């Protein structure tokens, strides 16, 4: 159950061919067909994407240039007019899909709701009118801080419909983290709920919004819309706060989709990097619509008869691309689940699969490792025979977990798509196409057609087969992020100049280490920067360090990841205290609580280690490599000659 190591992965040579039965009806039905698509896209990427854009999407007006690439800034389908809400809703209404389930929502505790395409369209149009009524205009930013309820998808689609830019903030983030994001994106309105259900308890979302907005600290926010969900008493500020259901009831259901420019901003989603504050990743309309549409269709081999379930939260990119936009653009039935396994209901995931006859199930390795721990008697007690395809995302999957998923959940029948991508890439980049590409446990296999992925060194030179290097992408693709919100320079530096461009050739730097094997299969090892991946959630060490240092007792902090059987990585913080402050277990708990308050529960350090001093180089840089080894309980290896004071290390080792 441990994380993959270079050794374990190098010795992984099991291969699983796509079953003939699966391939025979798959969109991409053979390795040859994949290869043809890949070659065609590589030879003429613009023609490849243009053909798909024309056949798969509705455009109010066609583009005049497929790609305008002024590295590192790309524009796709220039001057095309499109609306993703139209592609996700309206165009299905004139077909039999009108009365097909668009969203199946399973809420906690025991609530459920199904919205057909016609019903979802109506709700979205009404809510779009509510937004307009409150003064939201094209280009304005709207914050969405909701639990996993249909209103989250409705709010996103309503923004898209009128050209407002949504910025969804995961409901697990704290008031402070919410405020930072609302301020950075200059949100004019916030959509929230009284609360959300999380493991049998209420998450008081509205209370967090009140804290985030207190003392006019997010001055752009004029209105707050509140969905009634958990029904406890909450404060409503007259003039600012409105109940969703009050305004929705009076709103007209007539709201034509605004023809948007292909490059108009669709959303901003914040993600952690190795330096500074979380950055607002900007995605635009046309390219993102196409990329999420076609990746959903081919990678999940989506059929009109499928019930598709992605277990992510809409607060992350996976929820944006593969619960809402990709599936709905394809006219699919997408399941949205508010719950999570917990002691009172450990088999709830398998209940949902059985109850709705889920055919396609997409989750994270950390969840799979938790399922393994809870025991196979739980899935074995349910009828999972509806499943035909499984997927994973978020972190490398260890071959043991892959095998368990294949055997216990897929009963050896279902292909597994291990999908590598990022908030920045908009959609899946490296993945098997399930009817075509043989899989190897632990490998995300091959790039999606049109994606030119490479393993290089820091100069951009190719690295030999089976040697570790940096994962990079050579040519722009329609779903790629366009910039960092408000900081074009940071976009350029972070992603496109990390590997210096050569002869005008730019390489996108993903921040992951990987290797490519003799069959061209990619094996992603994990982040090479100071980003920690805790249970599939991405956190910058610097963010957590800043949170710790903002506590009056803390002088200095260094945060590293430590391998963890369940979560992939666990946060370990080394902390030095201010003069006269004494270390204690109480203080450890207080510091953990402080980080939760500053960022959210996902950032709670698993361990805090007090130290007299941190190991530094003579120039004062903290040597995290040493701390990582210490945290993992490994021997310190490699060069320590740059260490300023060797006794620091001895002391830390003694604990
Ligand atoms: C980072 C991106 C994209 C959706 C969820 C996470 C890691 C993601 C895989 C995979 C190995 C993976 C990478 C990447 N990652 N999928 N299949 N195999 N690693 O999005 O929060 O932007 O994180 O997640 O390290 O850089 P994100």
Summarize the structure.
The protein is α/β, with parallel strands linked by helices. Helix content is 33%, strand content 23%.
Largest sheet: 7 strands, mixed
Distance between the termini: 28 Å
SS summary, helix count? 21
C-alpha Rg (nearest Å):
24 Å
Helical content class: 25-40%
Strand content: 15-25%
Shape: globular
Question: Class by helix and strand content?
Answer: alpha/beta
Overall pLDDT level? 95
Chemical compounds bound to the protein: 5'-O-[(S)-butoxy(hydroxy)phosphoryl]adenosine
Which spans have pLDDT < 50 for at least 5 consecutive residues? none
Count all strands and give the number: 30
Features:
655 residues, alpha/beta, 7-stranded mixed sheet, 30 strands, binds 5'-O-[(S)-butoxy(hydroxy)phosphoryl]adenosine
Walkthrough of the structure:
This protein has 21 helices and 30 strands. The strands form nine sheets. A seven-stranded mixed β-sheet has the order 5-4-17-16-18-19-20, sandwiched between helices. Strands 7-6-8-11-12 form a five-stranded parallel β-sheet, sandwiched between helices. Helix 3 packs across helix 4, helix 5 packs parallel to helix 12 and helix 6 (117-133) packs across helix 7. The protein is globular and about 75 Å long. The protein binds 5'-O-[(S)-butoxy(hydroxy)phosphoryl]adenosine. Residues 271, 317-318, 393-396, 418-423, 444, 510-512, 524, 526-527, 533, 538 line the site of 5'-O-[(S)-butoxy(hydroxy)phosphoryl]adenosine.
